[in-house]
Amino acid sequence: MNTANPHAATLEASAAAQRYTHTQIVLHWLIALTIIAMLGIGLYMVGLPKGLPFKSNLINFHKSLGMTVFLLVLIRIVVRLVKGRPPLPPMQAWQRAAAGMTQGLLYVAMIGMPLTGYLGSSFNKFGTRFWGIALPMWGWDDPGLRKIFFTIHEVCAWVLIALIALHVAGALKHQLIDRDGLMSRMLP
After folding, report:
1. Would you tell me which of 48, 89, 137, 186 could form a disulfide with 180, CB atoms 3.0–4.6 Å apart?
2. ∠156-106-131 over CA atoms, to 5°?
3. In sequence order, which residues have a C-beta less than 8 Å from that of residue 130 and are 6 or more positions away?
4. Which residues cross the membrane (predicted)?
């Protein structure tokens, strides 16, 4: 707690008392760490040569993680609708709007990435295996449609990287500059 500034100390104590639920915190960090790992795996595997057995295994692992994240994000959305979220500390309107826009776009990207990956995989002969279980294919082997979905998937990855950086920067600003205790609401 910040004892040098009594106002900041009050904000920290107030924010700490209004935390996300344990379930929301676990889902946040589980999704965040899995997405960061998946982005690393995705960037690594696109550089591997075609036909490499290790690359096939890595792609299937990436697909399974992606579908798992998709399901976890859906659960997180339901939990948030049911449980709500703690109120934000006082901040300027533009900051509140920026936080809302960033979080909204994060959800769009967290849903869009696995969907476009799944759809892109549905338009090739390999399909998608979810932890070894073959998922239904929604298409046929079509290189044109596959390229469209995988291009969107790649764009989503870069947008997601930028949004994560913005989200982390915002959290650090609240922790280190504003000292309003905002981060304590989501820390384990």
Report:
1. 89
2. 70
3. 63, 64, 67, 68
4. 26-45, 65-83, 104-121, 148-169
**Rounded distance, CA 27 to CA 20, Å?**
11
Q: Look at residue 122 and tell me if it is in a domain.
A: yes
Q: Is residue 1 part of a domain?
A: no
Q: Are 12 and 181 in contact (CB under 8 A)?
A: yes
pTM of the model: 0.86
Tokens for 27, please give them.
């889902």
- Angle (CA) 159 41 20, round 5°: 60
For residue 85, the enclosing domain spans 6-185
Q: Where does the pLDDT of residue 126 fall: very low under 50, low under 70, confident under 90, or very high at 90 and above?
A: confident
Domain containing residue 126: CATH number: 1.20.950.20
Long-range contact pairs involving 115-119 (C-beta distance under 8 Å, separation at least 24) = 115/70, 116/149, 116/150, 116/152, 116/153, 116/156, 117/62, 117/63, 117/66, 117/149, 117/150, 117/153, 118/63, 118/66, 118/67, 118/70, 119/149
Q: Which of 188, 64, 170, 49 is nearest to 121 (CA)?
A: 64
- The band of 180, judged by pLDDT with boundaries at 50, 70 and 90, is very high
Q: Which amino acid is at 131?
A: W
**Does the pLDDT at position 78 exceed 90?**
yes
